[in-house]
Design a protein that fits this description.
181 residues, alpha+beta, OB fold (Dihydrolipoamide Acetyltransferase, E2P), S1_domain
Length: 181
């Protein structure tokens, strides 16, 4: 806490501002709209908000980008507030730009490749021979019955070949992309 003497001492130096230097982010030239963004661009931005699932960063376009909690650091992050706070200047890479939905996916891990999953090797969702079968590839538990296990009258509509409506979510889209490649 500054004392009166400290304040007077600083005021004796005319033309000098005693406050620490203010740092501001330098937004990229030519990037003024979400349509100007390209995957793989490395930009500087300012953290505008921190939420439980990640941090929002102002990168100079109208819409803030999101750094998901899994892309904040190379190590495990339990709480994003442990890594960044509002007002921090960060360097980020653009992972994905969804113009119709006005969403920008960012990462602080500059070695991440756009268009790939943000998970690391050995992560929970990595599937392989050592981690067990992929979804839908496990051992059958229905005793060979093509209509599934006997349920003794529990639920179902009784019609073979029918199922619930397809799940239209990010996980379903990721599986569809993986299936195509």
């Amino acid at each position: 806490m500054p004392t009166v003497r400290d304040i007077l001492k600083e005021l004796e130096k005319p033309g000098r501002d005693p406050r620490p230097e203010f740092k501001a982010a330098h937004f990229a030239e030519g990037v003024e709209d979400i349509k100007d963004l390209r995957e793989g661009m490395v930009l500087e931005g300012v953290v505008s908000n921190v939420a439980a699932f990640g941090a929002f960063v102002d990168i100079g376009v109208h819409q803030d980008g999101l750094i998901h909690i899994s892309a904040l650091s190379d190590t495990f992050v339990k709480d994003p507030r442990d890594v960044v706070k509002a007002g921090d200047i960060v360097k980020v890479k653009v992972l994905e730009v969804d113009v119709p939905r006005k969403r920008i996916a960012l990462t602080r891990r500059l070695d991440d490749v756009p268009g790939q999953s943000t998970s690391r090797p050995g992560a929970r969702d990595a599937r392989g021979p050592a981690n067990g079968p992929a979804p839908g590839q496990g051992a059958r538990r229905d005793n060979g019955n093509p209509r599934g296990p006997a349920r003794g009258g529990q639920g179902g509509n009784g019609r073979p070949g029918t199922s619930a409506a397809p799940a239209n979510n990010a996980l379903a889209e990721a599986f569809a992309r993986a299936k195509r490649s």
